[in-house]
Specification:
heterodimer; A: mainly alpha; three-stranded mixed β-sheet; flat; B: alpha+beta; four-stranded mixed β-sheet; 12 strands; 30% helix
Chain lengths: 222, 317
């Protein structure tokens, strides 16, 4: 083999191997990025984040709806999945027809409307045209999953506090993802005042304690 | 030795006898012989179970002085003890405080309705004694418009809470920054950690209860008897400084569920509260719930005039 032949052969080899070399460089770069991300995630100064229970990532509020930083790592579970009779359009196909309304309506006997005392009108909140949605006073449609926007029309301060994580219950991680309860998880949508509940048992009264609350509970002096 | 020598009639004579004995030099060989016999006897007694003492436990170091291998041994011993008592596998750990994190609790008295779910969730999470009842959280029923804790009632029974003329105030350890209990402890068995939690080394506590007398919030509880916990209710996720089963004769108190919170979770009382009155988080993070509350609400602490600097804030909204 003379010199010129050797040269052409080497050139051919390098051309055939070029894609492999490029691929190798890409793979190495990817690996480096992955390692970097991993070490950043595992850095000891950052507070650990744990996964919240029953997360449904599809139900994160619409982007831009809540610019509050507290909203960014909170997941609000879907309300429409929790509703017994959803979707409403299964029965209410007749768009635009209002039908019977208010307390004692034969189709929803379990609903007691104890909110907005002077109004028995369902369509202050429910959309008469699109039955699977709620309606704001502006006429804008709202999904059942974004019920906070509907309630927040009047209860602005509570809505603001809820977005900050101050109002309402949330579970999960204080440093990471939270499962935040929506308005209607705790408040009944039609009777929003939270009623009294039963208290868990009291601690045992000390054997030689002196009762000092004579009017506390019936039949007992303390 | 005669009867007379054994029981000397005159004290002077007796003291003389003692002196002469002390003055007689003990033979070194004799001494070693006696010492050998004595140590053999002690060893035999220990081996046959004559005295049932766990010497590793007796000579266990203070938590802060333990090395990693010491800790491993101690945690294994605690797990083995519980395996023996409860026939249940438990894991004992000690999650360290997270850098740059300072825990604070905020409780909304407008929302708390006194249902005591937090109290019982805490009992279950923290392996508190059921038979002599120990509860970290006290919910105090006060007349609406007053905050006089002396007039409060923690033994209220409620089929229907909240009662209209009452307000409910849950009290637990305030994790004071200037903690009187830490100052009172004569053996340094309780101290403040970097993230603000006041912890107790239950194996170092001598049960003197000085800290209980020093605490102005009555937050500390004493194990007068060995804790009784049903086997199926024993929480196997245990922390050395938090919810492991306590021995008899030591003091315990709320520790902000540090075995949960230092891993990023919320405390058990917060997750159990159905009203959302409890808020917990890192006060150093301006976006955390507690930082927002302290910024926007009118918060107060209990017994502010004592300058204990509590970490439990209350507010109405």
């Amino acid at each position: 083999m003379d010199n010129s032949q050797r040269k052409t052969r080497r050139a051919r080899v390098s051309i055939t191997r070029r894609p492999i070399a490029i691929a190798a460089v890409f793979a190495a770069a990817l690996l480096l990025v992955a390692i970097g991300a991993r070490s950043r995630a595992a850095s000891p100064t950052k507070a650990p984040a744990i996964a919240a229970k029953k997360m449904t990532p599809s139900n994160v509020p619409a982007p831009g709806a809540d610019p509050t930083p507290a909203m960014q790592n909170a997941i609000v579970p879907s309300r429409s999945h929790a509703m017994r009779m959803y979707p409403c359009s299964d029965c209410h196909g007749d768009e635009g027809q209002k039908g019977d309304q208010g307390n004692g309506s034969p189709s929803h006997p379990q609903i007691e409307l104890a909110h907005l005392p002077n109004s028995q009108d369902c369509f202050v909140c429910h959309d008469p045209m699109e039955r699977d949605k709620l309606i704001l006073v502006t006429g804008k449609h709202v999904e059942f999953d974004h019920v906070q926007d509907l309630c927040g029309q009047c209860h602005m301060s509570k809505r603001r506090d809820w977005a900050r994580g101050i109002h309402g219950k949330q579970v999960g991680s204080w440093s990471g993802l939270k499962h935040r309860y929506a308005c209607t998880d705790c408040h009944d949508a039609h009777t929003p005042a939270i009623g009294p509940m039963k208290a868990m048992p009291a601690p045992a009264f000390p054997k030689f304690g002196i009762r000092k609350h004579p009017n506390a509970a019936p039949g007992k002096t303390r | 030795m005669s009867e007379k020598d054994k029981y000397p009639a005159h004290p002077e004579r007796a003291s003389k006898q003692v002196e002469t004995r002390l003055l007689t030099e003990t033979d070194r060989r004799d001494f070693l012989k006696k010492a050998g016999v004595m140590s053999a006897a002690v060893g035999a007694a220990a081996a046959t179970g004559g005295c049932n003492v766990n010497w590793n436990k007796v000579f266990q170091k203070h938590y802060k002085e333990m090395s990693a291998s010491d800790k491993k041994k101690v945690f294994a011993r605690i797990a083995a003890e519980q395996k023996k008592t409860y026939n249940k596998e438990v894991t004992v750990s000690d999650p360290p405080p997270i850098d740059g994190v300072s825990f604070v609790f905020a409780i909304s008295l407008s929302q708390c309705n006194g249902n005591r779910k937090c109290v019982h969730a805490c009992v279950e999470e923290n392996n508190q004694s059921r038979a002599p009842e120990i509860q970290y959280i006290k919910v105090i029923e006060l007349d609406r418009g007053t905050l006089n804790l002396e007039k409060g009632d923690q033994y209220y029974e409620g089929e229907q809470v909240p009662r209209s003329d009452k307000v409910y105030l849950p009290m637990q350890c305030n994790q004071c920054d200037n903690a009187p209990c830490v100052k009172a402890c004569p053996v340094k068995a309780t101290w403040k950690e970097k993230d603000g939690i006041v912890v107790i080394d239950y194996d170092w506590c001598i049960g003197c209860r000085y800290c209980m007398a020093a605490c102005p919030y009555e937050a500390r509880r004493f194990n007068f008897r060995t804790p009784q916990i049903p086997r199926h209710e024993l929480n196997p996720n245990q922390g050395y400084l938090s919810n492991r089963v306590r021995p008899r004769g030591v003091v315990e108190k709320c520790h902000f569920c540090l075995h949960r919170t230092r891993k990023g979770q919320y405390p058990a009382c917060l997750e159990a509260c159905p009203t959302g009155a409890r808020k917990f988080g890192n006060i150093n993070d301006p976006n955390s719930e507690v930082a927002q509350i302290l910024k926007t609400k009118r918060v107060f602490v209990l017994k502010e005039d004592l300058a204990t600097i509590p970490r439990l804030y209350y507010y109405f909204d």
